[in-house]
Amino acid sequence: MRSVGNAKPLKRCVEEAVRVAEQLNQRNKENEALINRGEAALVSQIKQRAELALQEARNSYKQAYEEGDTDRVVSSQENLMRAQAEMSEAERYENNLAQSQAQREQQEQQFYQQRIANEAAQSVAQQQQPRQVDPGSPGLGQQKPLVYARWLRGDDKSRLRDSCLVNQERYTA
Question: How would residue 74 be classed by pLDDT, with cut points 50, 70 and 90?
Answer without folding.
Answer: very high
